[in-house]
Design brief:
- Helix content is about 15%, strand content about 20%.
- A four-stranded antiparallel beta sheet has the order 3-4-5-6. A two-stranded antiparallel ribbon has the order 1-2.
- This is Sugar transporter.
- It comes from Faecalicatena fissicatena.
Length: about 140
C-alpha cells in the first residue's frame, strides 16, 4: 500500500521499496513507495531482500531507470539522481572491470551464442541476447 508524503517524512531513514509496478522514467514520489511497517515480516519470510536498498529520503524526486514490479527495492542499480546521505545528488558512474574487482565476477561459458552468465555481488546473472534480450537474475 502506498504511503503519503507525511508518512515518507516520518520514515525517511527506512528502506525505499516500490509499492506497485512502476515504469522506467518516472520521478519517484511517496505514492510510489511501500509502507516500511510491513518489511520485517517480508524479510523474515524471504520474500524481500533489502541489501543495498536506498533510503526513502534518498529516492524522493529521483528517476526510476528500469520498469520494476511491486515490492522491488530501490537501489543504485535502478534509480538515477538519488541523493547521498548528506542530501547531495549522486552522479551515476559507469562500472569498469577495475571497479568491480572488489566483488569479482565469474563468467561461465554458455552453449547459446550471445548468452553470458556471471556471478557478481551474490547473484547469478544470465543474459541471453537472442530472443529479445532475455535477462535472468537469481540470488545465490
Amino acid at each position: 500500500m502506498s504511503i503519503t508524503a507525511e508518512t515518507a517524512k516520518q520514515h525517511e531513514n527506512d528502506p525505499a521499496v516500490l509499492c506497485c509496478r512502476a515504469e522506467a522514467g518516472i520521478t519517484i514520489e511517496a505514492a510510489n513507495l511501500e509502507d516500511p511497517a510491513i518489511f520485517d515480516e517480508l524479510v523474515d519470510s524471504g520474500l524481500l531482500s533489502l541489501d543495498g536498498c536506498l533510503k526513502i529520503k534518498q529516492v524522493l524526486g529521483a528517476k526510476l531507470t528500469k520498469t520494476s514490479d511491486s515490492l522491488c527495492p530501490l537501489t543504485p542499480d535502478n534509480v538515477e539522481g538519488y541523493k547521498d546521505d548528506n542530501g547531495e545528488e549522486e552522479t551515476p558512474q559507469e562500472e569498469t572491470a577495475e571497479e568491480t574487482s572488489a566483488a569479482p565476477a565469474v563468467e561461465a561459458a554458455a552453449s547459446v551464442q550471445g548468452a553470458v552468465t556471471t556471478i557478481k555481488s551474490g547473484k547469478v546473472v544470465i543474459s541471453i541476447k537472442e530472443g529479445k534480450d532475455i535477462y535472468l537474475e537469481l540470488p545465490i
